Amino acid sequence: MCGIAGVLTHNSEPVELAELMRMASVLEHRGPDEFGAYRDPHIGLAHSRLSIIDLLSGQQPLANEDGTIWVVFNGEIFNFVELRAELEAHGHVFRTKSDTEVIVHAFEQWGPAGFARFNGQFAIGLWEAGPRVLTLARDRIGIHPLYVAESAGRVAFASEVKALFAGNPELPRGFDAVGLEETFTFWSPVAPQTPYRSVREVPPGQVWTYKDGVCSQQPFFVPSYAGGSLPTFRGSVEDAARSVLDELERATALRMLRADVPVGSYLSGGLDSSLMAALGLRAKGSQFKTFSLTFEEQEFDESSFQTEMVQRLGTEHTAVHVKETDIAEHFPTVLRHTEKPLLRTAPVPMFLLSRLARQEGVKVVLTGEGADEVFAGYDIFREARVRRFWAKQPKSEWRPRLLERLYPYLARSPVAQQAFARRFFGQDLSKSGEPGFSHGPRFRSASALKRLFHPDLQAQASSVNVEERLYAGLPAEYGSWSLLSRDQYLEISTLLPGYILSSQGDRMLMANSIEGRFPFLDVNVMALANSLPSSFKLRALDEKHVLKRAARDLVPSGILVRKKQPYRAPDGLCFVGPRAPAWVRDMTTESAVTRVGVFAPKAVSQLFDKTRSSAEAGKFTNADNMAITGVLSTQLLHGSLIESPAAGRDVVWTTLIDRLGGPARS
What we know:
- The protein has about 675 residues and is α/β, with parallel strands linked by helices.
- The strands form 3 sheets. Strands 10-8-9-1-3-2-18 form a 7-stranded mixed beta sheet. Strands 4-5-6-7-11-12 form a 6-stranded antiparallel beta sheet, with helices on one face. Strands 15-14-13-16-17 form a 5-stranded parallel beta sheet, with helices on both faces.
- β6 (about 120-130) and β7 (about 135-140) form a beta hairpin.
């Protein structure tokens, strides 16, 4: 993991070292170990390094033998050893043992098509000095971020938005109405959309090429499933379980062995992280560290399952105990790292967890993220199956009763009241075969929060129907997939890269200079999972069926059979109870809300009055949680990124070079 940045100029003015310095300084948390820079008359590249592989000679920016191609790179190419052997057979000569140098030679050999050969997680900036071409690429699923800002005669890119703002103080700042519309619909903007007017994000699996002031965009990867271009798995569910375990074991071992620093594992107490910890220990052999979250509130706590798994594995285990007051205390810091408005507070404990791992001397952790998307583990998939079953007989009295099997972990479950559940989940049953049917209830819940928007913002946001735009971009073979596969694709292309892997993943890991690795998102694991028949993944209402079979000899039965409980954290009560911090009041005064201009001051005032009363009466709702969190996160973000002209601290160039010891080349 690292931080990358660069500026391409289309005129005769070279990039100033001071600009690269400002960009690098605000990315130091992503790479505190070394710093490097490169300049020529047309490009400036900067890199903040978190050294994981080839600690002695893996510095960046890095060039090919004759200095005609330069690269800055954030992430890991896990199959770099195999690719290196192939490239050496083609005559390429290597000077380092790093995966970074493989990128340069792969690009020399195969061009942009080389990105499809990478099994890894990456954001890449490549500069071809001869033809003056800048190439940007992002991994297949969007594990690592890559942002772009285009202005008069210039293209800037960086791992984080704050680096773009810090590098160019003249870059226009301000929220983008459509970006906020997507945030309050999908929980996050969908790349290339961002919450900011002047910034775009390279979508997962895409290559952006800049030449002579023109940007061309092309995918190097488009997900596929059985029924489309991907062949259907041939074999029984038991055959599939063995294949899944084999691929997961290979993917985990690869991520354990391709690191020159200690690797640990997150352990939530659920199936996915438990399996990762077991496979990580198997690959390591001994002295393996695991890290968990425990909660003051029993509704969120999974410590009993964590303890059961730790006792089975015998790992060196540490946990951080999260109190309600911790959420509000660290929320402003977390927002400076997410750079997106949030509808949930779940990133806050993940920030504390990565801090714990760093304190314990671990630089890399395995996580179970991706399993629910790849193997159909979320309630949204079960919910869609029930609603489609109900849609076949919409007047049935017993079919909607199946909804009562969903969300058992929620104290205020949306299915607890039958009348409400039937009204809410019974909407649009006639559209059960259309794109977006599975996600309709989620999108409606989030969209209801837009009633808080200022009328001027509502008018701007209405210029684009974001759901129609999302569906218009679906792959050509989408209609040939099973209904479950279509639902999975929507989850993998919206919530996974935009929130789970970003706000809750990369940003919270990198806030404490920790690299996350995700075996469930391995290229071969995903290809196998996507080839499986739907019934192998979701059998009736049994989620992740094949994965449970694969894990049965490695994970205690109590964890295998427990009700699915997705990771959550305390929400709105942290901000309106008697222990609410002073900054909440400061962010929600009439003048503060008016200054930001996103929300209507009266609507915000009514929201907080209502939620204070609801909290006292013990009737705090899911909608209240999302509304409070959405308002506060947006207000905080405006202050930390839009109103702050430098978007970060300045560091004197020579001091940065002296302290971090990286190369500066011109």
